[in-house]
Amino acid sequence: MKAILVKDGGELAYEDFPDPVAGPGEVVVELKTAAVNRRDLLVRNPPGPVYEFPKPLVPGSDGAGIRRDTGEEVVIYPGLHWDPGEDCAGSNWGILGGPSNGTYAELVKVPEANVYSKPARFSWAEAAAFPLAALTAHRALFAVGRLQSHETVLVLGAGSGVSTFAVMLAAQEGARVLVTSSKQEKIEHARELGAAGGALYTEDGWAEAVGPVDLVLDSVGSTWQDSLNALRPGGRLVVFGGTGGAEVTINVRATYLNWKSILGTTMGSPLDFFSMLRMANDGDWHPVIDSVRPLAEAEAAHDRMKAGEHFGKLVLEIA
Prior knowledge:
Elements: E1 2-6, E2 12-16, E3 26-35, H1 38-44, E4 62-67, E5 73-76, E6 79-80, E7 94-95, E8 107-111, E9 115-117, H2 124-129, H3 131-144, E10 152-155, H4 161-173, E11 176-181, H5 184-193, E12 197-200, H6 206-210, E13 213-218, H7 224-230, E14 231-239, H8 252-256, E15 261-264, H9 270-282, E16 289-294, H10 298-307, E17 313-317
Parallel strand pairs: 10-11, 10-13, 11-12, 13-14, 14-15, 16-17
Antiparallel strand pairs: 1-2, 3-4, 3-8, 3-17, 4-5, 5-9, 6-7
């Protein structure tokens, strides 16, 4: 098969690679599309040991295609070994695309339990675009953030894959949604997805101006204090990324004296994925696609993500 390989030094190469062979309890999926996630950039250039995997490696966590043994159109749940509970993953937990070979390929091998029927209303590009990002957004909003329909949620960073899904899923639930961005045009795009408005984080005092809100979703990390400032007393801050840095200083007393909570999450369980799929099948929204490229042009998709130019998901077309 043809695949994109991550090699030593973070180089991407489009090359021949051995076809995967399904073992007991596994299936092979003939991929139609894959999608790019920020995790793929970290696998290429690890910021720490958690992303350091043996190479060459086929990256990619999101994929949609044809199950080879049955001919069924499927999407792939990207989590591995989540067990045993719902509050957190087990010690052997992982994500497809590092250390196991992922979806930047014509074929991928996954556990049979990881394949689910493709939502019939989604195109192949849309089907590949939503699993990891929508799952992350769904768990952050509902299982961890406990968002209710009468509440207001602030989503930081309008335009990323997770944030676009967070806006649409929260709006589908009936919640009021606000966003932040450095560009007014991205806030306007978020309005088209169901947001009520937003704030430019480049302006002083944006957190106080946009708040108070019930829930904040923060994937930036360095913005924790601003996110806490935007919360009402008793509000919840859900964090699932550190694109702005791995360390932050916060006002501890102002946090506990106002009954504010900081909750961590990443990805989601099979039950979260099933619940998210149900919302996808029942909703009228579609994954936001920034652009679609041939698999061989994965490097260009990575460059666009690194530049922060995208709004929505970057998709790779395989067949």
